[in-house]
């Protein structure tokens, strides 16, 4: 299968508290992506500063840190054909008001500051983010038995 890659998808504290994470897992699974790692965790400031290093100079950065530390995060890794691009499409626009119905943000969020979910924006960032949130031994290598029914 060509273009198989991995992405990091995190259900943010608002999505966990609102109970939206089962729907996120369902959508990615039904789309045909394989779950490689999953954990419910409390992100500490050190991890979040590394994860959001590109945003540290933005005026909203302190509130972003506070929000991300406010409750559990469901961290996941998914594998599949073009999963980074497809995952971002499934999430919808960063500003939920610009997200199409049928996307996760379009269906469940109204405010950019409470937009439910994070998804890697490139293969390179996915590798970095997966490495920040998971140890190598936490990534499960397995053969997806349904792969022949999903991919040509």
From TrEMBL:
Keyword Mitochondrion: no
Cofactor: Mg(2+)
Ranges where the Nucleoside diphosphate kinase-like domain occurs: 4-141
PANTHER family associated with the record: NUCLEOSIDE DIPHOSPHATE KINASE
Alphabetized NCBIfam families for the sequence: PRK00668.1 (NF001908)
Binding site for ATP: 12, 60, 88, 94, 105, 115
Entry keywords, A to Z: ATP-binding, Kinase, Nucleotide-binding, Transferase
Protein name in the entry: Nucleoside diphosphate kinase
Organism: Brettanomyces naardenensis (Yeast)
Active site: 118 (pros-phosphohistidine intermediate)
Pfam families xref list: NDK
GO BP annotations listed: CTP biosynthetic process; GTP biosynthetic process; UTP biosynthetic process
Catalytic activity reported: a 2'-deoxyribonucleoside 5'-diphosphate + ATP = a 2'-deoxyribonucleoside 5'-triphosphate + ADP
Entry EC no(s): 2.7.4.6
Gene Ontology terms for molecular function: ATP binding; nucleoside diphosphate kinase activity
InterPro entries the record matches: NDK-like_dom, NDK-like_dom_sf, Nucleoside_diP_kinase, Nucleoside_diP_kinase_AS
Root EC class: transferase
Family, per entry: Belongs to the NDK family.
